[in-house]
Specification:
The chain is mainly α. The protein is built from 17 helices and no strands. Helix 9 packs across helix 15. The termini are far apart.
Length: 437
């Protein structure tokens, strides 16, 4: 016997500000503050940034508003919305895999996110406490057991917030944390530009070097764009389910995509002036903010305060993303497996914590999951949701949901999600992955 059709949610965002803070918070996280700078550093700086910006404008934004439109129309989880919309359009319910792949990709990120975010928490405490040591990991994070304990603390905080629900948990935290995040980001960026090598940072990030464009660079930029805005990761499908019918999806999606891009660029302008001021290697990879930045803070006036603020900023960004990741997975599991929300949150939280605990002792697992989820699964999820929004979702439904677009812009949007997004992302994905292996 077929499983009963889930009922659309009746919950709604309290107001537009709450939705925007949650949406921006899900996008703005370590993907901007940790992953963007080291990805840019490893992939030629401005060449990477150029492809990243083009991807955000030409592909990520159109796919983002397509996700929100599908989610709002169906009012279900990412899995339920894609499955039931396909069924109502006379297509196979197996299209629910579109939402499932995205949700799984995002959940895989959560499994390693706790380790990285736990380290951010530890470094924030070390910074304010004067715990940075020349050429060494702070003592409070110096052993695998301590790595495990900080990862555990971060996951406990994440689960506790999500257990409070949509309004008391996700909304309340995002409404407070995101304004604080932007204030700290602005202050630190101004400080870095005034006290670091600003001209070198601008040249590195913004001067075009087309000879450095390779399939690997393009794949990294595409993966970062999808990873950062969590497009293809089912978050926006899920958030769309709570949108009011009067909300202008085109405008709200533009605010989210623009905010995420601004934060990514500001993160680069916050980090790279310091990197060049102290003759550090911008292509250090993941060690950029954990190895080189603490060394720089030791040499700055009031460096302990600056360092503490820097890692506190990263910790806020990490939490806003992690609670969104856990929530969207829990909503899907609750709906599809008919579990209580609390049970789903606790079960998924424990599994993510356990995987992260293992990776705390075997760090290479983090790198493999990061590549597979961020540069493979999320682009695949982006391709699938683009195909779904462009070909499977009824055109008349999408036109109503995207009423904020003019007829001309709607036609442009449809062309992008039907043709450009799948072909471009698919081509870069194949070239980049084949080059890696």
């Amino acid at each position: 016997m077929a499983s009963p059709t889930p009922s659309p949610t009746t919950a709604r965002w309290t107001n537009r500000f709450s939705f925007l803070m949650v949406g921006i918070g899900a996008s703005v996280g370590l993907g901007n503050l940790w992953r963007f700078p080291f990805q840019a550093g490893e992939n030629g700086g401005s060449a990477f940034v150029l492809v990243y910006l083009l991807c955000i404008i030409g592909i990520v934004y159109p796919v983002l508003i397509g996700e929100l439109a599908v989610g709002r129309h169906m009012g279900l989880s990412a899995v339920g919305s894609t499955k039931e919309m396909a069924r109502s359009a006379g297509r196979s319910p197996w299209w629910g895999l579109v939402g499932g792949i995205g949700a799984l990709a995002t959940y895989m990120v959560l499994c390693i996110y706790g380790v990285i975010s736990g380290r951010v928490l530890a470094y924030a405490v070390a910074g304010f406490g004067g715990g940075f040591v020349e050429g060494a990991v702070p003592e409070i994070y110096a052993t695998p057991v301590r790595v495990f304990l900080w990862q555990t603390l971060f996951m406990v905080i994440t689960v506790a917030i999500v257990l409070r629900g949509l309004h008391k948990g996700l909304e309340s935290f995002s409404r407070l944390s995101m304004p604080a995040f932007f204030i700290m980001l602005t202050l630190l960026s101004v400080y870095s530009l005034r006290n670091g090598d600003a001209s070198a940072a601008f040249d590195y990030l913004l001067s075009p070097r087309f000879e450095e464009l390779t399939p690997q660079v393009m794949l990294a930029a595409f993966g970062q764009a999808f990873f950062s805005v969590v497009v293809g990761g089912a978050a926006m499908l899920t958030f769309g389910a709570y949108l009011d019918k009067k909300a202008n999806i085109a405008n709200d999606g533009l605010v989210i995509a623009t905010s995420d891009t601004i934060v990514a660029l500001m993160a680069g302008l916050m980090i790279f002036p310091i990197v060049f001021q102290f003759n550090l290697d911008p292509a250090m990879g993941m060690g950029l903010i954990f190895s080189t930045m603490p060394h720089s803070f030791l040499q700055m006036p009031a460096g302990s305060v600056v360092g503490g603020l820097f890692f506190s900023l990263a910790a806020l960004g990490a939490l806003t993303s992690s609670i969104a990741m856990l929530m969207l997975a829990a909503v899907a599991v609750e709906e599809q497996l008919h579990l209580q929300r609390k049970t789903a949150v606790l079960t998924l939280g424990v599994i993510a914590w356990a995987v992260g605990a293992v990776s705390a002792f075997y760090p290479h697992i983090n790198e493999e999951i990061d590549f597979f989820s961020g540069q493979v699964m999320m682009p695949i999820g982006g391709i699938l949701i683009a195909v779904f929004a462009g070909w499977i979702a009824p055109r008349e439904v999408m036109r109503v949901e995207l009423s904020g677009l003019s007829d001309t812009m709607f036609s442009v949007w449809q062309f992008i999600v039907r043709y450009m997004a799948p072909l471009l992302v698919g081509g870069v994905l194949v070239l980049g992955v084949s080059a890696r292996f």
